[in-house]
Design goal:
It contains 7 helices and 8 strands. By secondary structure, the chain is an alpha+beta fold. It folds into 3 domains: about 80 residues; about 130 residues, Ribosomal protein S6/Translation elongation factor EF1B (Alpha-Beta Plaits, 2-Layer Sandwich); about 40 residues, no CATH class. The strands form 2 sheets. Strands 1, 2, 3, 4, 5 and 8 form a 6-stranded mixed β-sheet that branches. A hairpin with a 2-residue loop joins strand 6 and strand 7. Helix 3 crosses helix 6. The longest helix has about 70 residues.
């Protein structure tokens, strides 16, 4: 069959359209799908980027919070003797010798006992409900019971709280001095800027020589300024001093290492 010029033109146009459609389906349409997928991936990446930027923006405040906790912890632990010090008798000797020099007593010895981890009891006012029956008889509207429960709430909460443990070390201190100077030494221990408890004080001569002087019929002058006075009683020397044994407990914690907030750990 012979095609005329018009038919040839129409056939050429149809062939061109067919080629364009084939090119669209073969090339353009897959690329369009790929472009849509890339846009979706870009959206996910941008969202991830925003999340990462938000976390990065939180880092300065997080650093500040960590350092604040570190500083607050150090402020609390400053009240305790460092573990490295409490287990070193030389360091404790220096503390006690300093107090002895300041108060003019003679430090004879400092004996170290073994350190041990012990729980700390909370200091609180424990309320006992001793008149429950009498109160219940008068409590016609429940107001007395409500008031009592409110009073006991804090005491019960503290009593049920878990106890923390701390390292405790006991020391036996032997000193010799006049009454004033011994009491000054005890006062210095009380004012020690570390956590310390004076457990026991044993004074060998509570009269600081007065009873011995009285028995020997001699007068031992008072020593208001703490100076040492000695009298002779038939060849026996009597002084206004006494040997004193003091048992104390020091409380210790480990010093917290400063956190490294600038180094990013590698995976």
């Amino acid at each position: 069959m012979k095609l005329n010029y018009r038919d040839k033109i129409i056939a050429a146009i149809l062939i061109a359209v067919a080629i364009l459609l084939m090119g669209f389906f073969a090339l353009i349409k897959p690329k369009n799908k790929e472009l849509k997928a890339d846009k979706a991936s870009l959206s996910d990446v941008q969202k991830t980027k925003k999340d990462i930027e938000a976390k990065i923006n939180q880092i300065p405040s997080l650093k500040e919070q960590i350092l604040n906790i570190y500083n607050d912890t150090n402020a609390l632990t400053a009240n305790f003797v460092p573990v490295s010090d409490v287990q070193n008798p030389v360091v404790i000797d220096k503390y006690m010798q300093k107090f002895a020099e300041e108060t003019k007593v003679k430090l004879n010895s400092v004996e170290l006992a073994e350190s041990k981890l012990s729980p700390i009891s909370y200091y609180y006012n424990s309320i006992k409900d001793n008149d429950a029956d009498l109160r219940n008889a008068a409590d016609v509207n429940g107001s007395l019971a409500e008031a009592m429960n409110a009073r006991m709430a804090e005491s019960i909460a503290v009593e049920q709280r878990a106890k923390e443990s701390i390292l405790q070390t006991q020391y036996g201190i032997s000193i010799t001095g006049t009454k004033k100077n011994v009491f000054d030494y005890l006062e210095a221990l009380k004012k020690f800027d570390k956590s310390v408890v004076i457990n026991q004080v044993s004074i060998s001569d509570y009269s600081f020589g007065q009873e011995k002087a009285k028995a020997a019929n001699v007068t031992l002058p008072e020593s208001k300024e703490g100076e040492e006075v000695t009298v002779d009683a038939g060849g026996q020397k009597i002084s206004n001093t006494s040997d004193v044994r003091i048992a104390i407990t020091l409380y210790s914690v480990y010093e917290m290492a400063k956190p490294d907030v600038d180094t990013v750990p590698s995976n």
